[in-house]
Amino acid sequence: MKNRSLLFRLIAAFSVVIIVALLAVFVFMTWSTAAEFERFRERLDTQRAADLRISLTRYHATAGDWTGVQPYVKHIGSMWDWRIIVTDTDGTVVADSDETLLDTQYSESPRAGRLMSNIGERQSFGTLYVEPQAPPGAERALLSLALERIGLFLLLGMIVASAASVALAWFLSRRILAPVRTLRLAVQKLGAGDLTQRVETTNLGDLGELASAFNAMANALQHMNNVQRQMIADVAHELRTPLSNIRGYIEAVRDRILEPDEETIATLDGEAILLSRLVDDLQELSIVEAGQMALERQPEDLAELVTHTTDAMATAATAKNVQLERRMADNLPLVLIDYHRISQVLRNLVDNALSHTGEGGCVMVEASRAGDWVQVSVSDTGEGIEPEDLPYVFDRFYRVDKSRTRATGGSGLGLTISKGLVEAHGGKMHVESRRGVGSRFYFTLPVFTEDDHAGERAA
Ligand code: ADP
Q: pTM of the full predicted structure?
């Protein structure tokens, strides 16, 4: 089986790099040592030839001529394994280590490997020709032995260095991978359902960022899980009341406490309508909260939207004896909205205002421009909301008056959905209220700009 663990791969990668580097060092060292030896030998030859020239100069200076120089030249030639030829100023060979050219006229042209120099200092006594031969057998053997030993030491050093480096690579890889291992275990546990898993984020760099990202993901998952659980609990709670009401009526009819007459059926129908409204609202809320509401946005005239929506609610206001008024700034800019959704938001706010405003009260709908935004507000002269309830009115199922029946109080989802719809349009929803004075709900929508226009055409 192939070992695919990260630790194995890291060690393998480290090892390959180390071994290739050491091999390169080995090859280079062996080659450069041999080259260095060769250079050293050449320098030695040059030095020896220079020394020989000096001793020949002295010889001539002392003896006055070349008589008797042959044995000396022969001796040096055999000692260093050189071919040495000495000629006098006329070019006649006076000494030859091989003794073959003695007393002949020497006229060889210079060759590679041959050193030629003039003998004498102020005046010339002759010429020295030196031709170093290939190193003698013994010297060659010695040289290759030295090279072999150097190679062996290098090889040994390489093996020790490789072993030490691989051990170090193993140790370092384990250290580097320790946080990855911790993270992997945490991911496994999280995947198995333990949402409390978190990892330390003390590591710097990529691993630290990975750990932070993991923790953020775990937080988000846990939050979503809590929200979902809370949602289910809330929904169960909300469904329980109308359902137990329905069951209560049915039992009463069965026990003949209530007559199955028109009135009972109407009450049962009311509870069923309430239930289906609740289910519809829940479905809408889940779409809005998931950010999946499909908006058909177009540049719209808000003044027209406000007029149309309030006109449709005038009858309800009249029936409650509440004055429904509107006030709109001139030349309101266009806004890029889904007409029906924003109309739904406005209807919900006006509906709430009408239900919380007593007879003779007033509900005012206003639309005005505030910078890059258009603001729509719905104010009423109703009962108002206590400061401690105010922060929660947009929470789902929140009802200020807990004793209100659901038939009159609604599902408690209207404001949550409205706020979600406004936010889906890039706007914001706010509320101000004073108990006994009235409330003002207002939302903003971004003004339709040339950029939006360009984006629209491009789309
Ligand atoms: P509901 O379906 O109960 O009206 P909403 O989400 O529309 O649910 O409103 C939440 C709560 O906020 C309401 O139960 C009500 O107590 C309070 N509320 C909303 N609008 C007003 C208002 N104009 N005046 C006073 N209280 C309000």
A: 0.60
